[in-house]
């Protein structure tokens, strides 16, 4: 580690120690308020109002603890049960929902131990470097104060400038040790907080079930919407043309004896209508599962897609193996939707697609040089990508600051599909 990085991390940890001291004091206050709310519930019933309010503050404090732990490389997931939409923020139902959530009591159990550990480690993170800094500046301080006694380190009297120099090496040593140890103290504090604030195994399973329930509902809704789209496209497009085609052929059959010229004209119109209906059916099938995806795999299908965009688009892929069909399809349509957003909304002059694969995940990235400002909450395109990937336990992250660039990063769990052929790879 470079000296600059080492000192930066140390100073950040010292600041984190000061923050931990302040937050530890709030733990004690919240603990007392929580106990007071519990006591007042059977006596005056005020806990029905007070406990939900205090619990909200406790959870805010716990969320701050999880956030601080995340700063030090110790991610802590939220363990709380989702609030049912029929439950308000106050009253008996809110009270019962709070006290039956195990995460409430884990937060409560953490308040005092977290305050003690946070205060102790925070003081350690803060005082050791400050003590070292005191030794470094002790000589100028002694000169400024003038004559008199001053002690430092192993406590020897300093009565002259020459003796004052003895504080410098000890001060520098304490300062270096303090800056080096402070990040480890902060990480230990984060690990201790995770013991209480992270979801238990049962809570993780419960949260996962809830998440999968939401994903399943979104997937079912998306599939239903896709079926309605296909039905509408068939009804309004190919089906209507085939009905008209049948009527035209019927008229030609009636006119073939009486007016052969008209019959030939009607048959020519029927042939043209059949060609149009065939093109529409091909477009519809391509929207369900593009033939190029089945023939050339994800790499070839994305390159073919990029060639038809109206802005220059480069494709960089190291995926030479065929993947499972559902994964290939989800990845293709996610990339296609992201590129559609680029061409329609970004105002970009250039776009790129990156497709990488590690041992167990497919890593996709779509970027552009547009004006940025993309927001999933303002449209259905990015939300559709999230729903499509979520069905496979995939994720999407978006970076789109005002002024650009916009980068959509997607990750899909995947495995090799061995019976299928290997493709050539390259870079456009």
UniProtKB/TrEMBL annotation:
Has keyword Cell wall biogenesis/degradation?
no
* Keywords recorded for this protein, A-Z: ATP-binding, Kinase, Membrane, Nucleotide-binding, Phosphoprotein, Transferase, Transmembrane, Transmembrane helix, Two-component regulatory system
Q: Where are the transmembrane segments?
A: 21-51, 108-130, 137-158, 164-185
Q: Which residues form a coiled coil?
A: none
Q: What is its EC number?
A: 2.7.13.3
List the Gene Ontology MF annotations in alphabetical order.
kinase activity
Pfam family, any one: HisKA_3
Q: Does the keyword Transferase apply?
A: yes
The record lists the catalysed reaction(s) as: ATP + protein L-histidine = ADP + protein N-phospho-L-histidine
CDD domains assigned to the protein according to its UniProt record, in alphabetical order: HATPase_UhpB-NarQ-NarX-like
- All residue ranges annotated as the Putative sensor domain in the record: 19-197
Q: What protein name applies here?
A: histidine kinase
Q: Look up and give the organism this protein is from.
A: Paractinoplanes globisporus
